[in-house]
Amino acid sequence: MSSTAWMAGGGPAGLSWRAWVMVLVLAVAALLPGISAIPVMDRDEGRYAQATKQMMETGDYVDIRLQDATRYGYPIGTYWAKVASAQLFGGAEAPIWAYRLPSFLAGVIAVLGTAWLAARIGGPAAGVGAGLLLAVSVVVAVESRVARSDALLLACVVVAQAALWRLSRSSEERPRFRGAPLVFWAAHAVGVLIKGPIITLVVGLTIAAWCLWHRDRSLLRRLHILKGLGVTALVVLPWLAAITLETGNAYLEEAIGRSMMGKVAKGDRAHGAPPGYHLVALFIAFWPGALLAGAAAGLAWARRHEPDIRFLVCWSVPTFLVFEAVATKLPHYTMPTYPALAILTALVLATGFSPEGRWRWVHRVVAGVFCVVTVALALVPVAGPLFFETRFEHLYQRTTHETDWGFPAVVVGLAILGAGVWVLRRRTVGRVVTLSVLVAGFYALMFQGVFPRLDLLWPSRTLAERVATLAGCDRRQIEITGYAEPSAVFYLGTDTGLGDPDDAAALLKRNPGCGIAVATDRDREAFLAAASALYVTVREFDSFAGFNYTRGKPVTMTIYLAEGTELRRR
User: Fold this and answer.
1) 34-63 confidence digits (pLDDT tens)
2) How far are the Cα atoms of 111, 151, 228, 255, 480 from residue 183, in angstroms, in the given order?
3) Is the pTM of this model over 0.85?
4) Which among 80, 498, 536, 549 is placed 20 to 30 Å from 515, CA to CA?
5) C-beta pairs of 494-501 under 8 Å, 24+ apart in sequence
6) DSSP string covering 368-387, please?
7) What pLDDT score was predicted for residue 119?
8) For residue 43, is the peptide bond before it cis, meaning its omega torsion is within 30 degrees of 0?
9) Of 554, 546, 562, which Cα lies nearest the Cα of 505?
10) How many CB atoms sit inside 10 A of residue 59's CB?
């Protein structure tokens, strides 16, 4: 039996059950560790999780709110998915991993869908290689662990594009509206309900590029566009009508006018960047698969006349260019193109393709960048604590449990460098399997061990732990000044106040027995002055230092109680 024969299944170009099991196990190993250990991350995950929590608290599953503010940037689909998951594990009291579970499952679906499509395009070896390269890519590993919408969108894109590929290969001029056309439009409809027209952009650009390249519009007839739009409307319009009846035009004005169009012309929330950003980010976001990105580009050029290669190019290149042109840029924006890139990279492995001419030099440069990035990532477990220790010496004290996880992670990270060089010397799927196992181990050490134990990075978790040591009141009221991260609201409760020093002092005046005021070092003097003006005598209960990574600044938080409070340390 050949080294890849065990991967082949009974169907044409399908995967054997052994290959499916291996891809599934490695996907779970790469995407699951840390899902329960990592604290709530700011800001998007905290916003999604808290808004979902409020839906369960209020019983309103139509409107989307973060405390009293509206959250109308995207549709309801992501929140419903997280509600369904959280309800199984405690409802509004469910831990953060329950909110992350849909993202994890969506990541696995995207990996399996990519493996299925790659196997049909390039054979079993390509299927295994593409599935593993997508599973261990940094951006998929991160997005599958956070309670946001991007992993869910990725799963919808993969399913829709797999169905679209089937239609592109169909010999029927206009097949019946079932099978591939129905799957395509169902995935599109769910994708729209999750993140609006982003999936429409991806599949629409793919279709347009395919038709223009082939000078053939038959794919449009196979899609049954009118019926398909009806499916999308059937899925999306009921909620859209419900929220419009409840809030008027507020949702459409914010979602379209401010959230979507506002990101096109200028960088939203300081996330602007020039064209070329996503190309540079790819070397980290698609790591470790980026080591063969240059060879994949050479293969795409050499085989550009083949229909399957054209489909992958039409999937990836137009969408990538659009996001390069949009002013607002974040690394995960181009993630919907990564399955196509993973398949092209896997074809390099499956065919033993060797780039020639200028593509050989591109491959060598890309491989060199991979080595640099791998060394940098391998040193993060040691360099991160060292940075905090030297840059914020007055805040940070190294603990032994950080080192316990850090040095093994460095060793595995450097082993990945060796495995990457091993793959470059002979590009085979078997060697990529070894590389994927090492990367999955590296992620387990980083996400389960290193990051959760960097206490300085998680001030909201620390604050919740310190507040939990107070006993004596059934219903406590908390007001925070100088720190307004949504993770604090998720941990401490929806009625947690995020105000100014006057609000914090007023809380202790209004509720001296069960009120808790939290002031940062920036607002401390103003809070004490406000409390004095209200004739409230306060005492310091606890104080700790942290690092607010969303603002890039250290923060010291002090918990204050009023004299005569009923709260006592447990």
Assistant:
1) 999 999 999 999 999 999 999 999 999 999
2) 18, 19, 10, 27, 48
3) yes
4) 549
5) 494/50, 494/53, 494/54, 494/57, 494/67, 498/67, 500/526, 501/526, 501/527, 501/529, 501/530
6) HHHHHHHHHHHHHHHHHHHH
7) 96
8) yes
9) 562
10) 6
